[in-house]
Amino acid sequence: MKDINTSAFAIEVVDLVKKFGNFTANDHLTFNVRRGEIFGFLGANGAGKTTAIKILCGLMAPTSGQVVVAGYNVMTHPELVKQNIGYMSQKFSLYEDLTIFENIRLYGAIYGLTANEIRQRSDTILRKLGLLKDRSRLIKTLSLGWKQKLAFSVAMVHHPKIVFLDEPTSGVDPVTRRQFWELIYEAAADGITIFVTTHYLDEAEYCDRVTVMVDGHIKALDTPAKLKKQFNVDTMNEVFLNLTR
Ligand SMILES: Nc1ncnc2c1ncn2[C@@H]1O[C@H](COP(=O)(O)OP(=O)(O)OP(=O)(O)O)[C@@H](O)[C@H]1O
Questions:
Q1: What is the mean pLDDT of residues 190-202?
Q2: Over the chain, what is the mean pLDDT?
Q3: Nearest to residue 188, comparing CAs of 213, 169, 217, 209?
Q4: What is the atom index within ligand 1 of the atom nearest the CA of 90?
Q5: Which stretches are transmembrane (predicted)?
Q6: Which structural domains are found in the chain, ordered by start?
Q7: Secondary element (H or E) of residue 186
Q8: Which three-class secondary structure state does DSSP give residue 101?
Q9: pLDDT class for 3, splitting at 50, 70, 90?
Q10: Counting Cβ atoms within 10 Å, is residue 152 exposed (0-12), middle (13-18) or buried (19+)?
Q11: Is the CB of 211 under 6 A from ligand 1?
Q12: Cβ of 51 less than 6 Å from ligand 1
């Protein structure tokens, strides 16, 4: 077993392959994510992003390759991986018929927090989001933007080392997306590694480094500034179009 303290990397992926029958969804992916980094994972629909995230989170076994997350091999120690990460899926996992507090309590309990820890962390989350007075509101009464911000906070209730966000801001307006990114920056400033997929190319500019997946392959991996320089363009949107068309 590998110890996280010996590596500068939160995520190490070597030659990751995932096949569904004859179809290759992830084709020999190799990359590292540094600790504390905001790492953007871009690609068109069907490029293989969600498949890779599920493997990195220990939710799906790779066909071959080596994947070490938070210091643990996802094949041999998926439970230790899960304890050390947070995951916010596309269909984020809040329970609509439970209240805000009940959702936080549920996820806190799943991660083995004590009642006291759950109360403290719930207060911290609600204060930060300005939702202290709303703790008894049902999730289904919240706007999509609030659900997303809460789902992100709940995904970090157990203070994970890494948090995986699969299209966390899809479907909301630019102001709400910007607010969501403020939460991401705060988490990164606290030392949490952020692995995020998005279809919004303006959000790619907020990442420390970005990888662009095309048909299961990594086509590019660098800082937004270097990618724009490489393609001699002004925006990540143009970088993306250059790589995917
Ligand atoms: N369980 C599965 N069985 C068969 N094929 C699958 C399975 N899961 C994903 N795929 C296929 O693998 C490819 C990659 O899917 P994936 O969901 O990883 O893409 P994505 O980049 O996350 O796309 P999107 O942006 O639409 O979420 C797609 O062609 C998809 O149909």
A1: 93
A2: 93
A3: 209
A4: 27
A5: none
A6: 4-244 (3.40.50.300)
A7: helix 174-189
A8: helix
A9: very low
A10: buried
A11: no
A12: yes
